[in-house]
Amino acid sequence: MTNRLKLVTWNINSVRLRMPIVEQLIEEVAPDVICLQETKCPDANFPEKAFRAAGYEHMAINGQKGYHGVATLSKLPLSNVEKRDFCNVGDSRHVAVDVPFNGSALRVHNFYVPAGGDEPDRDKNDKFGHKLDFLGEMQEWLQGTETAKPAVLVGDLNVAPYEHDVWSHKKLLKVVSHTPIETELFENVRETGGWLDAMRQFTPMEEKLYTWWSYRAKDWSAADKGRRLDHVWVSEPASSHIKSTEVLRDARGWEKPSDHAPVVAVFEA
């Protein structure tokens, strides 16, 4: 029986390019389950051999050439694999699996929500409209029977919802990822489904919390102009089992890094 589960979620920004730092993460953190986003490769080119060599025999992959892509890798058997196509555009942005936990299963949703482009106006920017529609479909689906079971939703959700999820609330109010229309819809998705924001359970609202730092900064750490774009949500039946979350900030400074840092979540029965 699996009574303790360590899960990592990470927008890796090309899994083949950054496999060395994925292997570094595995060596240093030893997660049971790894949820990757923006893998940027079709399923046939996914580095399965490297993951199997590292002990991750079980995989649920939803990829496409050059863009998007999600993958869930596990030391534990996976079942009930589901790949949902949001907005009927054929993008690879979601995969869900059941992972053995506490004598039953934990449903793990792995998401890569559209970034939304640069202009926060759906009439001027189709990408922003797509993002809002994607979130709307999430809200419609991720409630009721989907959240009545122990479940965790992780990934790069591309919204920083709260004041201290960004380096400057005032300066980013008109910047995509922190605009009021996005943050309100994002909270509606979470609240409609009864999801708990696990990361904010362990980091008070008044404290800054980031998972992403732009490549554009010459010294990303010194500038520290971050945003919390990566999230860990848990359903009410799983809320008593989440014991900790941690952003691995140091990984943003590893060799040839992603612009996102991994987030670790620990569950215990």
In whole angstroms, how far apart are the ends? 10 Å
Total strands: the figure is: 14
Return the structural class: alpha+beta
Helix content: 10-25%
Share of residues in strands: 25-35%
- Unreliable stretches (pLDDT < 50, length at least 5) are none
User: What is the averaged pLDDT score?
Assistant: 97
Strands across the major sheet, in which order? Answer: 3-4-2-1-14-13
Compute the CA-based radius of gyration.
17 Å
Q: How would you sum up this structure, described in words?
A:
- Helix 3 (126-141) runs parallel beside helix 5 (180-192).
- The chain is globular and about 50 Å long.
- The chain is of the alpha+beta class.
- The chain has seven helices and 14 strands.
List the SSEs and their pairings:
Blueprint lengths: L3 E8 L7 H11 L3 E5 L10 H6 L4 E5 L7 E5 L4 E4 L11 E8 L2 E9 L13 H16 L9 E6 L12 H4 L7 H13 L3 E2 H5 L9 E2 L6 H4 L2 E2 L2 E5 L7 E6 L15 E6 L1
Parallel strand pairs: 1-2, 7-8
Antiparallel strand pairs: 1-14, 2-4, 3-4, 5-6, 6-7, 8-12, 9-12, 10-11, 13-14
